[in-house]
Design a protein that fits this description.
The complex is a heterodimer of chains A (113) and B (241). With 113 residues, chain A is an alpha+beta fold. Helix content of chain A is 27%, strand content 33%. Chain A contains two helices and six strands, in the order αβαβββββ. The longest helix of chain A is centred in the first third of the chain and has 19 residues. The chains are: A alpha+beta (113), B alpha/beta (241). Chains A and B meet through helix 1 and strand 6 of A and strand 1, helix 1, helix 6 and helix 7 of B.
């Protein structure tokens, strides 16, 4: 359950952004979480509510945008669509795929006042 | 008035910055650093203890031990004569780069040696956190079954080396070794796989060879970096009027 640590890191980044961009409250947070980023979105939402309590983002809306997965196929040497971690290559049927897209988790933007 | 502020940075940007700092510090010390990852009970500490005993000081080493509670593991390491620092993460399920930075403040790093960082026993969370290490080594004991790599892919996907531990138990187990290796290769086609066992003699050979080779590559890489910097500085100095 490292989602709690992710939320704490997110709060740190928002505090930094509040100083840099001069705002007091965060109303909405938009995150991009790739399907291979190793994040359980429900756990992230739970952690978000707990960690943001009493902070500049208390009660903020959390919007999670997903990012589709792609992978490198070691059998036919190209990037292919990879809907889940154990998908086979749609082009050659090979099973040796390593994700190369949808691996990120990043803060996209904040709606602030 | 509502407005939107673009951020576009990794959620773990802070961790990544600490990791970069650790990496620079370890590089300056000529250190090969390994992040050891595995579920609880895979045999990380036992493998480390036996590795350090077998090396008998031939490779200068230090250890950072991560656990939620107790200093037991650091004590086991110190009993081999190797300096060790224990990090207790409390409720935390993984080490992060900030904790490792603090441990580095306390630990006397052996110049040009090896730092082993034993992560918290957990097959999930530690995978997400860069500590500033050079190589990731994931351990899987043969008693854990064939399909762990498929069930917990993240920890295998980022590994440079997968150590299969406790292979001396294979005759007593109903486990398909080829299937374990196939599943690792499916998740991570480029990881090396080496068999080990830590009880008795002769179970660490392949791992110690890998370690020696990784250290040689690390030192050669750092030397090449320094030579590159030296020749650049020399060229600038020679071009001065």
């Amino acid at each position: 359950m490292h989602e709690m640590a992710l939320c704490e890191s997110l709060l740190d980044s928002m505090r930094d952004a509040a100083r840099t961009h001069g705002f007091d409250r965060v109303k909405r947070v938009r995150l991009v979480v790739g399907c291979f980023a190793g994040v359980e979105v429900e756990a992230l939402r739970f952690g978000f509510d707990v960690v943001m309590r009493g902070s500049l983002a208390e009660g903020a809306e959390l919007e999670v945008l997903d990012e589709p997965g792609t992978g490198w196929c070691f059998d036919c040497s190209q990037t292919v669509d990879m809907p889940d971690r154990l998908s086979a290559c749609p082009s050659c049927g090979g099973e040796r795929l390593r994700p190369n897209g949808g691996t990120e988790m990043r803060i996209k933007d904040l709606e602030v006042v | 008035m509502h407005r939107t502020v673009e951020i576009e940075q990794a959620i773990l940007a802070k961790n990544d910055a600490y990791a970069a700092r650790n990496r620079a510090r370890l590089g300056a010390g000529g250190i090969l650093s390994l992040n050891l990852l595995a579920g609880p009970g895979a045999g990380k500490t036992t493998l480390l203890v036996e590795t350090l005993r077998t090396l008998g000081g031939r490779i200068p080493a230090a250890v950072i031990e991560g656990d939620q509670q107790t200093a037991n593991d650091a004590e086991r390491i110190r009993a081999t004569g190797t300096p060790a620092v224990q990090i207790n993460t409390g409720k935390g399920c993984h080490l992060d780069a900030h904790m490792v930075g603090h441990a580095l403040d306390e630990l006397e790093l052996p110049p040009d040696g090896v730092l082993f960082i034993e992560n918290v026993g957990n097959l999930v969370c530690p995978a997400a956190f860069d500590l500033g290490e050079d190589r990731r080594v994931t351990l899987l004991s043969v008693t854990e079954g064939e399909d762990k790599p498929l069930k917990y892919p993240d920890i295998f996907e980022t590994a440079d080396l997968v150590l299969l531990t406790k292979t001396d138990l294979l005759p007593h187990l109903d486990v398909d070794l080829a299937a374990i290796e196939r599943n690792i290769a499916r998740i991570n086609p480029v990881a090396r796989i080496i068999h080990t066992f830590a009880r008795g003699e002769g179970g660490l050979g392949g791992w110690l060879d890998w370690l020696g080779e990784a250290r040689r590559e690390r030192l050669a890489g750092l030397a090449a970096e320094s030579e590159g910097r030296a020749s650049r500085l020399r060229a600038v100095a020679e071009a001065l009027p």
